[in-house]
Each structure stands twice: as C-alpha cells, then as structure tokens.
Design brief:
The protein is of the alpha/beta class. Helices cover about 25% and strands about 35% of the residues. The protein has 5 helices and 6 strands; from the N terminus they run E-H-E-H-E-H-E-H-H-E-E. The strands form 2 sheets. It has a 4-stranded mixed sheet with strand order 3-4-6-5. A two-stranded parallel ribbon has the order 1-2. The chain is globular, with a radius of gyration of 15 Å. The chain starts with 5 loop residues before the first strand and ends with a strand.
Length: about 130
C-alpha cells in the first residue's frame, strides 16, 4: 500500500533541495523550537524520522517532545540521530531515561554509528516506540 511522505525543515534552502528529489508529497517550513509549530506537528504519523536536527547549535533534547507528539500512539515510531559531540554535554541519555520514566515512550534501540564519515563525525541513532 502506498504511503504519504512529508518533509519539515527550518531552512528554505533545504526544503528547495528536498523538492528536487521528487519524493515528497508535501514540504513545510517550521522551527521545532517555535510555539507556532503546533499546526504542523500535531498530525499523527506512523513514523517520524529526523536527521541533522540534534547537533551543535541546533535543537536540544526538548525537541524530541515535539517530534514524539506527532507520532501515533501506541504504534508509532520515532527515529532520530544525535551528533555524538552533543550526546553527553546536552544530556540526551538522561532525557531519554526521563521520557521512559514518564511513560511517554519505549526506547527500542540506541546505536552508535558513523554519520558524516568524510568529517569523522559519529552519532547515536535512537528508535522510540510511542507509549
């Protein structure tokens, strides 16, 4: 069965690049730290994937709440990468532990991976099942 693919980014340039791929059904500009993002992320998605969001000088761990809010419960999945350079300093593991303690989701996997290999940058990839 066919699906529907939407993309969201704060950068108009990234949205323009995404449009050239010809795979998205819809693209939206949005800032996950903006209180007005409700109209975009309050939809219920089966799967939400985020890459390049949780890194130096971008969205901190609280942005995970915004992404998780857009995932269907109790079957939806959230998958995102976190630049290894901010994993400890920004407290991602502690945040995930609290998320589980609050029964908002179940961490299915945290995997250490190569990210931007040409720059020697690694990341953690996290998969959460919404509770």
């Amino acid at each position: 069965e066919g699906g529907w693919l939407e993309g969201v980014d704060i950068s108009e340039d990234m949205l323009a690049q995404s449009k050239t791929k010809g795979i998205y059904d819809a693209l939206f500009p949005a800032d996950l730290t903006d209180a007005h993002v409700d109209s975009l992320v309050s939809k219920s998605y089966d799967v939400v994937v985020s890459s390049g969001t949780f890194t130096h000088g971008h969205v901190g761990p609280n942005g995970i709440y915004e992404l998780l809010r857009s995932v269907k419960a109790p079957v939806g999945l959230l998958c995102f990468s976190v630049n290894l350079g901010v994993w400890e300093s920004d407290g991602y593991q502690l945040f995930l532990d609290e998320l589980v303690e609050k029964k908002l989701g179940q961490v299915l996997e945290i995997r250490h991976m190569e990210y931007l290999t040409e720059l020697g940058i690694q990341c953690k990839v996290v998969v959460i099942k919404k509770a």
